[in-house]
Design goal:
Blueprint: H1 3-18, H2 23-34, H3 40-58, H4 60-74, H5 82-103, H6 105-109, H7 116-136, H8 148-158, H9 168-178, H10 183-208, H11 210-213, H12 218-246, H13 249-267
Helix pairs in contact: 1-2, 1-3, 1-12, 3-10, 3-12, 4-5, 5-8, 5-10, 7-9, 7-13, 8-9, 9-10, 10-12
Length: about 290
């Protein structure tokens, strides 16, 4: 991977991590369109750390308040405050994706699950779910109304993001809307809920893939992570602004159109759905079929 590719991956990661359109899907689609091999789930998870840093800085005040309330609640103080409920909701809400993700880690990384057919299907499916959530959700509850049970339920929705194309923000925002939370609260809680799981996945993959990441992929991974931080910070503000004013309809349309375009390209042989299986040490060649 050269530095131009790394910058492209960083831009795509930063832009799509927080928008409900699936960063994993786009990081799988991009190399397929470029005729490059899939960088893999490990590389994807590592460069997500840049977007985690972006959300930590953007929501530093909310995070500080939630952490303070969390530790106070451990001492029996202020358990019913909105900040404490937010913290405990995020804590319990993180457990489903961590448990399922660890149990199914090999399946999640497999070529079958990362197939472009799977991604096309999940893009369309979650787009429809988001549309229903936008229409059905009462959106009459704000930050002050957030309960711990909301975190648990939305956390179960977050586990859907283990499938490429589902989108972490798309699934959690949908789950929050179904719980009656308003758009802004749903988006902000989605961001905060994502921090522990993305961080855990990034650190785990950084350790698991350390020979590659600290070897030939070191510079590309660093560049992509830095770029994803810069772009990710901007995309957070963009999403909050768009959701507050327009809702998530624009993202629903994008997901469905992209899914259909993928299916058309796959049916015409313009793209190959899965990466070819390779022996250890064997180099993977281009994954795009020439017209």
């Amino acid at each position: 991977m050269d530095l131009i590719e790394a910058i492209l991956y960083g831009i795509v990661q930063g832009l799509t991590e927080w928008l409900p359109i699936s960063s994993t899907a786009h990081l799988r689609i991009l190399p397929a369109l470029l005729g490059k091999p899939d960088p893999g789930a490990g590389f994807t998870a590592v460069i997500q750390l840049g977007t985690v840093l972006a959300v930590l800085i953007f929501f530093r005040s909310d995070i500080a308040q939630a952490l303070s309330a969390f530790f106070k609640s451990l001492r029996g103080e202020g358990r019913d405050t909105p900040e404490a409920k937010l913290a405990w909701g995020a804590f319990y809400g993180t457990l489903p994706i961590l448990i399922i993700g660890f149990a199914l880690k090999d399946l999640i990384k497999s070529n079958q699950v990362r197939s472009l057919y799977v991604i096309a299907g999940t893009l369309i499916f979650m787009g429809v779910v988001m549309l229903i959530a936008e229409k059905v959700g009462k959106q009459n509850r704000g930050k002050e109304d957030l309960e711990v049970k909301d975190g648990i339920i939305v956390g179960c929705w977050q586990a859907l993001a283990l499938l490429p194309g589902m989108s972490r923000s798309g699934s959690t925002i949908s789950g929050a809307l179904f719980q009656g939370l308003d758009r802004t609260t749903a988006a902000r809680f989605s961001f905060l809920l994502s921090i522990p799981s993305i961080t855990a996945a990034g650190v785990y993959e950084l350790y698991s893939e350390r020979k590659e990441i600290f070897g030939p992929l070191l510079m590309p991974a660093l560049v992509a992570t830095v770029v994803s931080f810069v772009v990710g910070y901007a995309s957070i503000a963009l999403l909050l602004k768009v959701i507050q004013k327009q809702g998530i309809g624009i993202f629903v349309g994008y997901r469905i159109v992209l899914g259909i375009v993928l299916l058309v390209l796959l049916s015409q042989g313009k793209l190959v759905a899965t990466e070819p299986e390779t022996a250890p040490g064997e180099k993977v060649v281009a994954s795009r079929v020439s017209p």
